[in-house]
Design brief:
Helix content is 28%, strand content 27%. With 595 residues, it is an alpha/beta fold. The protein starts with a helix and ends with a strand. The mean pLDDT is 97.
């Protein structure tokens, strides 16, 4: 049986416990003895000198320096700070556009030893086989991967079409798999609150399984928040302010404080500091990390680093990333350096930059000085290929047809927090002429489960573009999505991505400027981290030249959530302009012909 399936029961092997007890008494040698380091105590918050003895995957002893000296291997930790391995409580590997093995190679040397992965990107494209591949690809990695069952495939049924459809029966099946740790973020908030039968059945499947039921509660408060939690959802990472953080802590949610919205972190630090203590229900997560950011700055270690930079006490940030996270997961073997616990340990150079000197995972010395000491297995990715079921497109596919000379047009106003808007536009030769300050958005179904006629909309508040950006990374149905100022550049970018089998492309002045090929589900590359990061960096630079970003909301990342139909407000999908609140779809943005 695979070791991952045995956790945490693997620590209860009697022979292992016999050896650990003997070593703790001083009668037998430790396998590894870490000496001279400063322990960061996750319970008391103290910094104190201590030696740590390991036997197999187990911490056998935590004792005064020099009290025990017998060991097969001794590691001098003088000058370093020793913490439990970091635990990322909510993330999507697919957002980093690399395979699980490559992701593990990147974050393990930085001190991240456990991740809670919602593979709903793979699920939305390749269904159950995509989730199955995710489990198999991470099974034998030293990075502990707790895989969750995607709860929203698609995120807004009836308003969009993904590559698969997970209803209550599919979720019951997934949650019965021993490798599945719970129900992933429940994003269809309205469906849960209104007791939609589909969402009620999905959440109920999670409750009956006895496993975690995780949430996505952006903007919920008062009666809606209570209803969402009463249905059985117990966590949230979609915070919008410091006030929202405190309100959700008071409500009793476990908070997965995420690093992917950096502009909010200082506000969260202030709110927690004013509270005067770190609640045990505060954990940390990355959610989404682009490949260039992951390569340059890391994963959850970077979230810890930034929180400390913004003024959070190091011991608070670390406790959220270790002991609090382990408590949330129900893993008493993780999150604490103590005799009888699992030997997931990190030796950091300091508590400012958090550069990992050594990393241990289940007692194995797997990384030193930023490099892996072991080779990781890789799984063939055949089930994730050939997901682009589209023929080349023409310029007319990116134009809005209409009769007459003038029309009233529905628009999607503002990035991220969208709202309905209207404009009056001219019509020329059977097509709407978009105003110069409006951005075209086209979404084309690419999974072969519905018609692939492009659905076109107009975005306002996105500035004046001078080119086009196309992506198959488009949350969460991941249909082909194209943004642009003109049909010609949009067509060039889209056809480049179609030919590549998925990925991203930028075009301007009737030429292709950049292309990042992501042939696995249109989301991921099998190339190494450096190559993918460099490719994404070049693409991001090309997009920066054609789009007038205005942080914190009008940013590159806004492109990837522009189709997330489960969030309140209008969103363009492969079915039209969808609004989850009113459950309506406009197949065309043309509301009325005026002349």
């Amino acid at each position: 049986m695979n070791s991952r399936k045995q956790e945490p029961a693997d620590l209860n092997d009697p022979a292992l416990r016999d050896r650990a007890v003997a070593a703790a008494r001083g009668d037998e040698p430790f396998d590894v003895l870490i000496t001279g380091g400063t322990l960061v105590d996750m319970v008391t918050g103290e910094l104190r000198l201590a030696d740590i003895g390991l036997v197999g995957p187990l911490i056998a002893s935590l004792h005064e320096p020099g009290a025990l000296a017998k060991a097969t291997e001794i590691i001098d930790a003088t000058g370093s700070y020793i913490t439990p391995g970091l635990i990322d409580t909510h993330m999507h590997i697919e957002s980093s556009m690399v395979t699980p093995s490559t992701y593990a190679e990147t974050v393990l040397p930085r001190g991240v030893t456990t991740i809670v992965w919602d593979p709903h990107e793979f699920g939305n494209v390749s269904g159950l086989s995509g989730v199955g591949w995710a489990i198999e690809a991470s099974r034998d990695l030293p990075l502990r991967v707790i895989t969750l069952a995607p709860s929203c495939v698609p995120s807004a049924p009836g308003l969009e079409m993904a590559g698969a459809d997970f209803g209550p029966k599919e979720l019951e099946n997934l949650l019965s798999w021993p490798e599945i740790g719970g129900l992933a973020e429940v994003m269809n908030m309205r469906g849960v609150i209104d007791r939609d039968p589909r969402m009620t059945g999905i959440v109920q499947a999670g409750l009956v399984s006895g496993k975690l039921v995780c949430g996505h509660a952006r903007g919920l408060s008062g009666a809606d928040l209570n209803a969402f939690m009463a249905a059985g959802v117990s966590s949230d990472h979609e915070l919008i302010s410091g006030e929202d953080l405190i309100a959700k802590l008071r409500a009793g949610l476990t908070i997965e404080l995420r690093g992917s919205h950096d502009h909010l972190l200082p506000e969260f630090v202030v709110a927690l500091d004013e509270l005067g203590h770190l609640p045990q229900t505060v954990t940390l997560c990355t959610d989404d990390v682009f490949p260039d950011d992951l390569h340059a700055s890391g994963g959850l270690d970077d979230v810890v680093r930034r929180l400390v930079r913004y003024g959070m006490r190091p011991e608070w940030a670390l406790r959220a990333a270790t002991l609090n996270a382990a408590s949330r997961l129900g893993r008493a073997d993780l999150g604490l350096i103590a005799a009888g616990r699992r030997a997931d340990l990190v030796l950091f150079d300091d508590l400012i930059d958090f550069k990992a000197r050594h990393v241990f995972a289940s007692g194995r010395h797997i990384a030193s000085d930023g490099a892996m000491r072991v080779t990781l297995p890789r799984l063939a990715a055949g089930p994730l290929r050939d997901t682009m079921k589209l023929q080349p497109l023409g310029e007319a596919d990116f134009m809005i047809p209409a009769k007459g000379k003038k029309a009233r047009i529905a628009t999607i106003d503002r990035p991220r927090f969208t709202r309905w808007g209207e404009i009056v536009a001219d019509i020329h030769e059977g097509f709407v002429i978009p105003p110069n300050d409006a951005t075209l958005i086209a979404v084309i179904h690419r999974h072969g489960r519905a018609d692939s006629r492009p659905r076109i909309g107009l975005l306002t508040g996105w500035g004046m573009w001078n080119g086009a950006f196309c992506t198959t990374v488009s949350h969460d149905s991941h249909n082909l999505t194209v943004f642009g100022s003109n049909p010609r550049d949009m067509c060039i970018a889209a056809n480049a991505v179609i030919a590549a089998g998925g990925g991203m492309a930028v075009a301007s002045e009737e030429k292709l400027d950049a292309l990042l090929e992501l042939p696995l589900c249109g989301l991921v590359s099998e190339a190494d981290m450096t190559e993918v990061a460099n490719g994404f960096r070049k693409l991001r630079t090309a997009v920066d030249r054609i789009a007038p970003w205005q942080p914190p909301y009008l940013v590159f990342k806004a492109c990837f959530g522009a189709t997330l139909a489960c969030n309140a407000g209008p969103h363009q999908t492969d079915r039209g302009i969808a609004d989850v609140v009113s459950s309506t779809i406009l197949e065309t943005p043309v509301l009325e012909i005026l002349a």
